Amino acid sequence: MKSKKKAQKASKSALKKSALLSQKTQKILKIISIAAFFGGILLMFPEIRTALAKLFAGGAEHAETAAAALESRFWKTGVHLIIYGLVIFTMLRFEKTAVYLPIVLIVIFSGIMLYALYLRLYMDVSPRSLFEDESMLAASIITRQMGTVLGAPLLFIQSAPALFVVAVKAITLVFGTSESALRIFSLLAYVATVAFSGLVLRKAFKMDMVFAFLGMCLTATFNLYIVYADMLKPYMADTFFVLAVLLVYYYYLEGNIKIQVFTILNCIIVLFSSPALFFIGAVYIYEFMNALFKKDKHPIIRITASGALVLICAIVYSILWLMPVANTHAMQFFWMHYRFEIFTLQADKIKNNIHLVVSLFDRFEYLKYPYIVLFVAGFIVSFVKKNRITKVIGIAILLLIVASHFGKYPIEQRLYNFTYALIIIYAVIFVESVVSYIQRLQFLDKIVVPVLATLVLLVSAGVLIDNHSIIIQYFGKGWYMANNEANPLIQYVQQNIQDGEYLYTYRAANDIVMYKNGYDADRIGNVSNPNIVYGDTIFDWMDRSKLNPELIENQRPWRALQAELEDSPKRKSEIERVRDLKKAYLLFYGGPLPEWTYYGLGKLTQYGTVSEVLNIYNTRLYFFEAAPVALSDLP
């Protein structure tokens, strides 16, 4: 019994000595956490936020606008403070021994991930309209049979990987063609991306579980992934398949995948994702150079044969599927300003190169430059450790820059969506290396506080990032897209339009109306005669003198407009077409800013009255009624 009591006392003494923070430091942190929590609670009261906003915006040129912006900022700051207070206080409660700290962190990260997943599911079942690009891509998927979905380039100069289109088509055959069904594949890709980011950290970079969960948490709550997880576009799938390339390569190196399976998987991934091709190419380049350096004949033959098969697959796929769209004038013009100039000494081009690279970090908002530092530092740490995956990623980055130089892969956020998962991975790698270094030095009491604060900062920033954070979205319905919420407008017209009235759709709204009302339908609502008039061009609603001529030239092929139709003197303008309808609903949707359409609506008022019927997230439905013709005006 005595020996048992001695052992218990020794155990308690050991736990006491293993505490990360001194009692004095714990008290200070408790005071800070409580102050942060109650400070955040105070900022939840609108009266306090309004008073503070007026105080700080008093001298601004546009005081009311500035105050409104500050009030929103104070609300977000309040949420930040509450999260900081709760997380730090929770950590302190379990901080008495280092054994429990990783468990607490894993629980916190897991809770945040589950919450993020819940909101993604909530978004997917919410009645959100397809936005313009989604509706154009949906047209090819819905109107074609499974056997012909890949028979020709996609409609409206849309671009998506072949197997992505096939996968979405297959889902619609089972679940129908609702918005939720069309977006399921992106949602699955989001979930798989979160899981694979943890696997890459755990397996390829040998991170502890707590850091694997940290990477998964930051990936799950990253603002752009929140958006693309619920979108009929391939960007989320691109991210998943890039991570899949890295994991497939890791398991190949470990001997878990044979060369035949490795080759087949790479061929499949090529057909699912364009950016993944650069990482697959990097894998083969590195493996070939490594085998060549070692002068090992069998690996050289094996990797060359495998790479040749994948290359043939990629070339045939590019010629038959990618090039018909990529080489169009519209695509070339659209992406011309996103080219990275390698061989240049011109100051403006060098400045543009820097802007292109730095702009990839813009989605990190106020943590933009810290994430640049974390990414670069983490990459260097991993490279110094001679990690093969890091070397492959480095080669892939070089290939992407070369491709951009030749105008084959522009540097732009959505096309580089996969980079954010890599940025987060290397940020975590650097944080882990710092923590490991501190543990080796054993100066825990002095240095662990900023380390813990860094972890909390990374997590809370990932959750509360300004633009599309999951908490802001949950309370503010931030997932709805301005100018693109056409569903309630179309539903209103279906229920209220009468015989003798028409629906005129702004050119960009044609595809969403066809999607919701039927691709072969010539009428909407319970009417006896055809009553839908589709817009021909977007420009008649704008003051062309204020538009960039290059934009007009770019829009010609982009909107599939024919020059002879638009410029023919016999052709009616869009304003005249609406005027001749006498009574018509006007549905505006897509990219137009309000001032674009106000010019055309102003001209339309010369022929009658225009009234706003609905305005849903800046997506507008108007009703035009022609003025009665005076007897003196009759022929």
Average pLDDT score = 80
Radius of gyration: 29 Å
Task: Quote the beta fraction.
Answer: under 5%
C-alpha termini separation: 117 Å
- Order of strands in the sheet with most strands: 2-1-3-5-4
- Low-pLDDT parts are 10-19, 463-469, 556-567
Largest sheet: 5 strands, mixed
- Count of separate DSSP helical elements: 28
Q: What share of residues is helical?
A: 55-70%
Shape: globular
Global structural class: mainly alpha
Number of strands: 5
Explain how this protein is built.
The chain has helices at residues 2-17, 23-42, 46-56, 63-93, 100-125, 132-143, 162-175, 179-182, 184-204, 209-220, 223-228, 235-253, 259-272, 276-294, 297-326, 329-335, 347-359, 368-384, 388-405, 418-441, 444-464, 470-476, 487-496, 510-517, 549-558, 563-567, 574-581, 594-604; strands spanning 502-505, 532-534, 583-588, 608-616, 619-626. By secondary structure, the chain is mainly alpha-helical. Strands 2-1-3-5-4 form a five-stranded mixed beta sheet, with helices on both faces. Strand 1, helix 24 (510-517) and strand 2 (532-534) form a beta-alpha-beta unit. 37% of the residues are buried.
